[in-house]
DNA sequence: AGCCTTTGACCAGCG
DNA sequence: TCGCTGGTCAAAGGC
C-alpha cells in the first residue's frame, strides 16, 4: 500500500456541454461563478471535444487531460487579455485543449453541482471562501469580485483550495486531516486543498476537484465523504462502467427532501467526485456534526456569518444556499442583470434558459471570501478567462506528478465591460 | 430501537 | 426488440 504503483486516477471535472463558459457569464452567470466556476467555465471545449461522449461519458474522462498546472505553464506564457474573446470563439470551436480530464456532467442539463471529493457542498456554500448569495442579487458579488477577492487573498496565503475558510464546514468531515500535509492546521483544509474544483452551474455546474483521487487523502470514511450538515442515507452503490470506482447513492434523510447525491470513489477508495442533485426543502439539521468538534465551530461560524456577515440578511442559510441553485440554474432572472452586459451570448442564454428549467438541481453555495485556489487537471483555458493571472508560487505536491501553481488575479475589469 | 450500510435485484432510458 | 447501463428498491445485517 505504501507504494501506490498505478497512476492514480485523475479526478474529473464535470463540465457541461459547451456553452458552459458562456452560460457562466450569461444567464445565471451572474451567479458569480467565482474562480472555481470560472475555471470550469474555462474548459469549454471539453464539451466539444467530448461532445460525443458527453452524456454517458461522465464517468470516463480522464484521458489525456492536461493538468491545470500544465496549462498554467503554457498559459502563463501567453498574453492573457484578449483571450476572453478568443476563448469564446475557440470555445465554440471546441478547442480540445481541455482535456479529458474533465468529464462531462450530466448532459441533460441537470444542474448538477459537483463538489470535489471530500468537500461538502454546504461547506462550500457556507464557506467564506465562496460567495454566492442569491439574495444579494447575483450572489453578493460579481464573480469578478469574488475572483478578485479570492485570488487576492490567495496570493497572500497560498493555501490551497478552500483554505481555512472552508474549514468551518469542511472540518466536520475532516475527521483526520492527515492529508493536510503542508497545510498546517486546519484539518479540513487539507481535504479541500487537495481537491480542485470546478463548478458548472446553470446548465451544469460542476465543481470538481481535479487532482483528487490520489490527493484526497481523506482519511475519513469513504462512505461519508462530505459532511455538509445534512443527513444522508446511502441507498445504493454501483460500479459505473468506464470507471473502476464504485458510485454510491445517497439521499437526504429528511422526510420529503428530494436531494440526492452521488459519490464516486477512486480505486483507492477515496472520493473522486460528488454530485448533488436537488434542493433541500428543509433547514439544515442542527449541528449534527457537533460531535466532530470542529464542526461545531463551523456551525457557529456559519451562523454568525449568516446574520452578521451580512451575507445576509437574507435568508442565507437554506434558501440562500439553495437559492443559489436557482441562481445557478438561472431561475432568478433579476439577478442576472448583474452580468447581463457581460453575457457573451444571449442566444445561448435563452437556450440555457430552457435547459435550466430542466435542471433538477444544483447545489451551491457561495464563497464568502477568502482564498480559493483552483486546481484542475485540465486547465485548459484557465487563463483564457479574460482575467490576468500572475503566478506567485509553484510547488510540487507529493503524490502529484504535476507541480502546483499559485496564481493571483491581476485584474478583473476586463470582463465587466 | 432506530438508523444506516450493504448488496442483489429490479426498473427505466437509450442506442 | 434486445442488451447495456445507470439509478433505485428493499431485505438483511450491523452499529
TrEMBL record:
Keyword Transferase in record: no
Subcellular location: Nucleus
GO cellular-component term (any): nucleus
Biased composition (Basic and acidic residues): 340-355
Residue ranges with Pro residues bias: 1-11
Keywords, in A-Z order: DNA-binding, Nucleus, Repeat, Transcription, Transcription regulation
Protein name, per record: WRKY domain-containing protein
Organism, as annotated: Triticum turgidum subsp. durum (Durum wheat)
Top-level taxonomy: Eukaryota, Viridiplantae, Streptophyta, Embryophyta, Tracheophyta
Amino acid at each position: 500500500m505504501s507504494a501506490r504503483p498505478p497512476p492514480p486516477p485523475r479526478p474529473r471535472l464535470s463540465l457541461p456541454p459547451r456553452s458552459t463558459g458562456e452560460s457562466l457569464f450569461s444567464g445565471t452567470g451572474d451567479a458569480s461563478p467565482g474562480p472555481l466556476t470560472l475555471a470550469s467555465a474555462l474548459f469549454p471545449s471539453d464539451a466539444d471535444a467530448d461532445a460525443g461522449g458527453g452524456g454517458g461519458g461522465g464517468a470516463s474522462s480522464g484521458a489525456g487531460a492536461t493538468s491545470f498546472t500544465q496549462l498554467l505553464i503554457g498559459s502563463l506564457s501567453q498574453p492573457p487579455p484578449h483571450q476572453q474573446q478568443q476563448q469564446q470563439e475557440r470555445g465554440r470551436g471546441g478547442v480540445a485543449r481541455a482535456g479529458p480530464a474533465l468529464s462531462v456532467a450530466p448532459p441533460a442539463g441537470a444542474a448538477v453541482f459537483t463538489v470535489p471529493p471530500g468537500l461538502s457542498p454546504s461547506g462550500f456554500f457556507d464557506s467564506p471562501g465562496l460567495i454566492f448569495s442569491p439574495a444579494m442579487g447575483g450572489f453578493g458579488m460579481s464573480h469578478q469580485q469574488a475572483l478578485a477577492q479570492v485570488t487576492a487573498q490567495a496570493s497572500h496565503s497560498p493555501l490551497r483550495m478552500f483554505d481555512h475558510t472552508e474549514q468551518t464546514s469542511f472540518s466536520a468531515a475532516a475527521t483526520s486531516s492527515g492529508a493536510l500535509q503542508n497545510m498546517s492546521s486546519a484539518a479540513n483544509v487539507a481535504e479541500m486543498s487537495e481537491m480542485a474544483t470546478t463548478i458548472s452551474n446553470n446548465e451544469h455546474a460542476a465543481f470538481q476537484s481535479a487532482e483528487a483521487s490520489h490527493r484526497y487523502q481523506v482519511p475519513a470514511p469513504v462512505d461519508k465523504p462530505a459532511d455538509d450538515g445534512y443527513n444522508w442515507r446511502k441507498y445504493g452503490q454501483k460500479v459505473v462502467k468506464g470507471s473502476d470506482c464504485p458510485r454510491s447513492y445517497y439521499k437526504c434523510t429528511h422526510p420529503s427532501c428530494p436531494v440526492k447525491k452521488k459519490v464516486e470513489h477512486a480505486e483507492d477508495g477515496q472520493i473522486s467526485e460528488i454530485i448533488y442533485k436537488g434542493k433541500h426543502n428543509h433547514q439544515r439539521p442542527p449541528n449534527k456534526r457537533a460531535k466532530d468538534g470542529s464542526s461545531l465551530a463551523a456551525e457557529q461560524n456559519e451562523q454568525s456569518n449568516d446574520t452578521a456577515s451580512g451575507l445576509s440578511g437574507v435568508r442565507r442559510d437554506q434558501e440562500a444556499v439553495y437559492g443559489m441553485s436557482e441562481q445557478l440554474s438561472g431561475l432568478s432572472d433579476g439577478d442576472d442583470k448583474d452580468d447581463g452586459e457581460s453575457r457573451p451570448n444571449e442566444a445561448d442564454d435563452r437556450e440555457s434558459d430552457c435547459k435550466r428549467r430542466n435542471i433538477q438541481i444544483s447545489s451551491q453555495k457561495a464563497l464568502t471570501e477568502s482564498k480559493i485556489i483552483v486546481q484542475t487537471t485540465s486547465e485548459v483555458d484557465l487563463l483564457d478567462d479574460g482575467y490576468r493571472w500572475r503566478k506567485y508560487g509553484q510547488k510540487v505536491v507529493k503524490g502529484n506528478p504535476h507541480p502546483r501553481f499559485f496564481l493571483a488575479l491581476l485584474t478583473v475589469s476586463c470582463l465587466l465591460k
